[in-house]
Amino acid sequence: MEKTNRYSDNELEEFKALIQKKIEKAQHDLELIKSAYMNDLNNGTEDTSPTFKAFDEGSQVMSKESNAQLAIRQEKFIRDLRNALIRIQNKTYGVCRVTGKLINKKRLELVPHATLSIEAKNMQR
Question: How many structural domains does the chain have?
């Protein structure tokens, strides 16, 4: 019996629901990151010694840079998940872009935006 080269419509619907939940959570997390980034992090150091204030300002810059990096990663994750939804619509979701074989279902449940099978991923190393 020949193995199909795509997931069934029912399976694709299951993946779609999983991805939509992940997008909702990722967007919520992104909002938290952005609100932390926008926060001035004022810890009441206006009237303390200038030395402490300089350290505090340096810490704020590092924290904002870190949050900016987190926001960028989160936005990329959301974009990858949305691209996975497009692949579901095109019925190409779950097909490895290197081998053309189906990506293991367990892998897709853990990494729903995956475009490579474990076999293809190992070939990259």
Answer: 1
